[in-house]
Structures are given as structure tokens and as C-alpha cells.
């Protein structure tokens, strides 16, 4: 049995400062700020998509194509995608750190998490900015009804 010393009552507690605690502070702040921004972005998204106009019945390929024709909605959806993915990734990173006992398991899970998050962010960003509902040279039978043949 090892002997350990217990500090006397009322002894000041000293906390060692490290760059890791600074990172955790910024991660904690990011979660709060991104959470507030996500609430605004998501409720705005729901309001426009579900309540304005014909509501949920109007949501189809043409609705999304028309929405993404505007840079405003592209940026709106991009912010929603990036913030949601980074917010969720940070939350899962915290859960992995809290519940994994072995360092190797923690590192492996975090590599999988970061890889999956990066893939979703890159592919989602590409879809938002390269979406073309009426590609030139496509078979007219395959195009949406709002596309003009030309």
C-alpha cells in the first residue's frame, strides 16, 4: 500500500496550466456559440421550408434547385452543415475522451470520427456549390420539368 499525503484543510489548490486546458476552454465556448447559431439557422430553415408558401407539400427537387440558385441560401445551408458537423464532432470527441479507458481505443475512435466528419463536410460543401439541376447536354427525358431544353 502506498502512502499518500492529504493536504491540510484550507490549503490553497493549485492547478497546473497547460495548452490542453486552453483548447478545452475554446471547445467549450464553441459548443455554446455554435449551439445558439444552430438554433437560429435550423428554425429559419424549418420556417422557410415548412411554413412559408405551400409548406411541406412544396418540397421537391425543384424547390431545392430554386433555393440553391440563390447564394444566400447556399451560404445558409453551408453554415448549417459546417456548424452542425463541427458541433457534433466536438460533442462526440468529448464523449470518446470521457468513456474510453485505453489510449489506443481513444485515438482509433477519434481518427474514425474526424475522417467521417471531414468526408461529410467536403462532400456536403461540394453538393451545395456544384449542384446543377439542369446540366447542359443531358437527355431531356431525364431533366426536371422546369428545365428548358436548349
TrEMBL record:
Origin: domain of life: Bacteria
Assigned keywords, A-Z: Heme, Iron, Membrane, Metal-binding, Transmembrane, Transmembrane helix
SUPFAM superfamilies, A to Z: Fumarate reductase respiratory complex transmembrane subunits
Subcellular locations according to the entry: Membrane
Any Pfam family the entry gives: Sdh_cyt
Keyword flag Transmembrane helix: yes
Gene3D superfamilies (alphabetical): Fumarate reductase/succinate dehydrogenase, transmembrane subunit
Membrane spanning stretches: 25-48, 68-86, 107-131
InterPro entries, per the entry: SQR/QFR_C/D, SuccDH_FuR_B_TM-su
Name the UniProt record assigns to this protein: Succinate dehydrogenase, hydrophobic membrane anchor protein
Species annotation: Brevibacterium daeguense
Lineage, broadest ranks: Bacteria, Bacillati, Actinomycetota, Actinomycetes, Micrococcales
Gene field: sdhD
Amino acid at each position: 500500500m502506498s502512502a499518500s499525503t492529504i493536504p491540510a484543510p484550507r490549503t490553497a489548490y493549485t492547478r497546473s496550466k497547460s495548452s490542453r486546458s486552453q483548447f478545452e476552454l475554446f471547445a467549450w465556448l464553441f459548443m455554446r456559440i455554435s449551439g445558439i447559431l444552430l438554433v437560429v439557422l435550423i428554425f429559419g430553415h424549418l420556417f422557410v421550408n415548412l411554413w412559408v408558401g405551400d409548406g411541406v407539400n412544396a418540397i421537391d427537387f425543384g424547390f431545392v434547385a430554386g433555393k440553391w440558385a440563390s447564394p444566400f441560401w447556399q451560404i445558409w445551408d453551408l453554415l448549417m452543415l459546417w456548424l452542425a458537423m463541427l458541433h457534433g464532432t466536438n460533442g462526440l470527441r468529448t464523449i470518446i475522451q470521457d468513456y474510453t479507458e485505453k489510449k489506443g481505443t481513444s485515438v482509433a475512435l477519434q481518427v474514425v470520427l474526424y475522417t467521417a466528419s471531414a468526408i461529410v463536410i467536403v462532400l456536403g460543401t461540394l453538393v451545395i456549390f456544384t449542384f446543377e439541376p439542369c446540366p447542359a447536354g443531358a437527355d431531356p427525358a431525364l431533366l426536371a420539368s422546369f428545365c428548358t431544353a436548349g
